[in-house]
Design brief:
Largest sheet: 2 strands, antiparallel
Helix content: over 70%
Strand content: under 5%
Number of strands: 2
Shape: globular
Strand order of the largest sheet: 1-2
Oligomer: single chain
Radius of gyration: 24 Å
Number of helices: 16
Distance between the termini: 35 Å
Length: 306
């Protein structure tokens, strides 16, 4: 495929990647100005001197953010003070020097445009950073995504694609490098994604299912892939997001410690050739048995979730 398109592999340094991210981010935000441009002079579309948002759900989340800022709400009024969209809006309203109405108007454009970051990072990971930039320019203004993340479209859509794309980047980065530092990226963003958008379980299951099939077909003896799958299944559990992230960190630490201990033991205690061969055969049998058990475990989990 690379020979067909005559594409050479390359990697950009941090400066080039940062400039590319900044350029595509500004490009994405600037093209979401249409709602403001169309109605900036129409007084009927303004409230407290600012253009109003244009989604029904947006006023629901804005109520929760308003009540958080006010420090309370009326009993049984259904205020969504525990919704992440309301909480992050209240946070921005506290730390930014803009009015509440201005923040909820512009927040979708800025958060939705964060999509360019994982797209460019995916290109960098695949050693095709230019393709990542092209993907970011096109993906950030894709028709349906553009409509649901323009200025004024204040809703959960502003991060419902950004977070799983970060998760996808984490999966690709680990599969390409097998470095432990990339092992917790995908599970962490999966936790954040499910906390932000609970209906995203189907997308998460589909992604994990494809990863599991890929592992069975191409890397069924690679224990590293099963480590990643284990952490992703922890992220899927119906626990509090803080507890899930804590469990992911604990399990990651255990995996990292065990691998380092095995590496150290192999270097520390060299054995005779015949003993080494026997030990290797035994270890292979144990790893095969463990891998098969893990496969059965994952198949059962997928069947339960599906």
């Amino acid at each position: 495929m690379k020979q067909f398109f005559n594409v050479e592999e390359s990697e950009w340094n941090v400066s080039k990647i940062s400039i590319a991210i900044l350029f595509t981010f500004i490009f994405s935000v600037s093209l979401r100005y249409i709602w403001v441009d169309q109605f900036k002079d129409v007084e009927a579309f303004k409230w407290l001197g600012q253009i109003m948002i244009n989604t029904n759900d947006g006023y629901y989340f804005a109520e929760g953010a308003r009540d958080i800022l006010a420090g309370g709400h009326q009993e049984n009024d259904g205020s969504p003070i525990h919704e992440p969209a309301s909480q992050i809006t209240a946070l921005f309203a506290k730390i930014l020097p803009f009015s509440f109405e201005t923040i909820i108007l512009w927040l979708p454009a800025f958060l939705g445009s964060l999509l360019v970051i994982p797209l460019i990072l995916i290109g960098q990971t695949l050693k095709q950073p230019l393709m990542g930039v092209i993907g970011a320019l096109v993906g950030s203004i894709a028709y349906s995504y553009y409509n649901r993340t323009m200025v004024g479209y204040y809703d959960t859509d502003m991060l419902s694609i950004v977070l799983p794309t970060f998760m996808l980047w984490g999966i690709i980065a680990y599969l390409k490098t097998t470095e432990d530092r990339f092992l917790i990226i995908a599970p962490t963003f999966l936790v954040l994604y499910l906390a932000w958008y609970g209906q995203g379980v189907s997308l998460a299951l589909a992604t994990i299912g494809f990863l599991f099939l890929y592992t069975l077909v191409f890397h069924r003896r690679d224990f590293g892939n099963y480590k990643l799958l284990s952490l992703l299944f922890v992220a899927l559990t119906p626990l509090n997001p803080v507890i899930k992230i804590a469990l992911i960190l604990v399990i990651f630490t255990i995996f990292h410690y065990l691998e380092n201990s095995k590496s150290f033991a192999r270097k520390k205690e060299p054995k005779p050739e015949d003993t080494t061969i026997q030990t290797t055969v035994i270890l292979k049998k144990k790893m095969t048995l463990m891998t098969n058990l893990i496969k059965l475990f994952y198949i059962k989990l997928l069947l339960v979730y599906l």
